[in-house]
């Protein structure tokens, strides 16, 4: 049997991780892996999460399952965080999942189960695992223009033109904020135009929101998800807690299905439970319990929001420093777009050959499409990166 197993394309980011680990140079910089790091290069445990974990250790009296859909109060807390009062809570079905990727997988499987002929439209570019999972499941998918590589800006005209070709029932996959890999987001007015187009053409929005709080702030980053959820008849949402709570290894995510008809939510909920049962049965609870405790406790929530704002403002400062340093090193404003992007990522517009030279000649590791993780920098490494980029140009 094993001899018949197929080979699979190597994951670009995992390959970068391995190359970085194998590099014996001490002065090397990892900008490939999409994980938040502080100035010391560590992914810290938030103090609010640590306090919740200590409290949970003291009061937890069982490790039994909490249910196929996860704990109901986790669903309540996450629906409140992502959607606020955009739609009534009774209009939202929720299912806890193993991370945001688990939520995406469950959403795709529900699409396949409910509407096997539907195409899923994915931004070009997008997070690599979106198309990988769609292809693995055999779900028809196509791309829409999103990013102008030469300018580092949004190609909104191309996006609308492409989505005009979508058929009723097709699913439009949208990044809620901090677009991965480009860092380029829709403005609020652009979100309104996209929502109007989806209503007019009877399209279904699916929002992947993995970085809420990393861009413009918790509420600003949720604008798009809240708008389409309150505007479109049906909306799918996949949310991750890995980044904004720093609980990467706890694999904490949630899949939400919003319907303007509250009478349909029970059916959606039942199908979510069925999908969970088929794929992994009961979802993990430890991370979900910590997130729920932080969101529901006023003191812990205030501390968490302060920590999250420090993370956001720190990445913004690094963006500003990098753009200024690149302007100085290259004597041009070519990279000014970096300050207009948000979240952890930006695409620099370098060729694969230039990215390879950054790695080989300077020990700077980025994804081959020139996506860099801003959070992999600190104030001391920004000038090193800028000088290296100026050298390879």
The 3D shape can be described as globular
Strand order of the largest sheet: 2-10-9-8-7-3-4
Order of helices and strands: HEHHEHEHEEEHEHEHHEEHHHEHEEH
How many domains?
Answer: 2
Strand content: 5-15%
On the 0 to 100 scale, the average pLDDT is 96
How many E strands?
13
Folded structure, characterized:
This protein has 393 residues and is of the alpha/beta class. It folds into two domains: 11-44 and 310-392, Aspartate Aminotransferase, domain 1; 65-296, Type I PLP-dependent aspartate aminotransferase-like (Major domain) (Aspartate Aminotransferase, domain 2, 3-Layer(aba) Sandwich), CATH 3.40.640.10. Helix content is 45%, strand content 15%. The protein is built from 14 helices and 13 strands. The longest helix is centred in the last third of the chain and has 33 residues, at 298-330. It is globular, with a radius of gyration of 21 Å. It starts with 11 loop residues before the first helix and ends with a helix. The mean pLDDT is 96.
